[in-house]
Amino acid sequence: MRTRLLLGSTMIVVIAGLFSLDYSLGSRSAISALIVILGLGAYFELARMGGIRSTERGGSLPLFLVGLASSAYFLAAPWLELAVAPGGAWVLPLGVLGLLLGSFASIVFRKDYARGFPPLLFSVTSVLLFGFLYSYLLRIYQAQDGLLRGVVFILGVKGNDIVAYFVGRAVGRHRFLTVSPNKTLEGCLAAVVFSLLWFPGMAYLWPEKFFPWPHAIPLAIILSFATQVGDLAESLMKRCYQVKDSSSLIPEFGGILDLMDSVLFSGFIFWIVGPATQVPWR
Questions:
Q1: C-alpha pair distances (Å), 220 with each of 18, 122, 187, 250
Q2: 24: containing domain
Q3: Phi, psi of 208 (to 5 degrees)
Q4: Structure confidence at residue 275 (pLDDT)
Q5: Is the pLDDT of residue 124 over 80?
Q6: pTM of the model
Q7: How far apart are CA 75 and CA 131, in angstroms?
């Protein structure tokens, strides 16, 4: 526990420093670069977990490269949309087409195509999670007032994780999830309470930058649910592939997936319901 607290505090200090650097430079480069690195790193971890690259498990190098390139494309999509004619409505559909076409093309010409199909499904799922959905963190951060929105979102989502963890350890008694046996009903409910305090509170302080604070009450519940489902989705993948942590990159925490799973669905929800969809990027 001591090591976990020390490393957790160190990561908070580093991320706070990157936010401060962006603020002082009037830029969004440092955190944006970190988001891209984490997204690509997450795909590497998933590729190893699901055997996407391993020929012994039905995967292949072409399938891995298609997934990696597609992840990079989706993470670059927010900037690509700015570089093309208004809105760049075709940018995301083109990415989905490239992902599916390239993935199937890497398998259908093989003699052992049946063995390649499960890694193909896992690769496509991985890209959609940590390429397509994950790119909405960049959209939140790069939007007008994105620095404030990014800080509020990350603190809210990770606050859910922290509250659920410590309340579950302290008073959790009712374990109700087979996919994640350490999760408790008490921890999950505490996370919802935290969201009900955090997101409406931030909306009350800055209604012009978010949304009328009464609207933040149902949003807080939805975000807490989405955050916890993201965490459970990663637990599901790890259990299916019989691994404890996605990697050993960070002692006591695991890998990138173990740190970032909670933002998978909540990032898109926060973007789509908030005023960020109504304002231009910087």
A1: 26, 30, 16, 30
A2: 1-142
A3: -75, -15
A4: 54
A5: yes
A6: 0.88
A7: 6
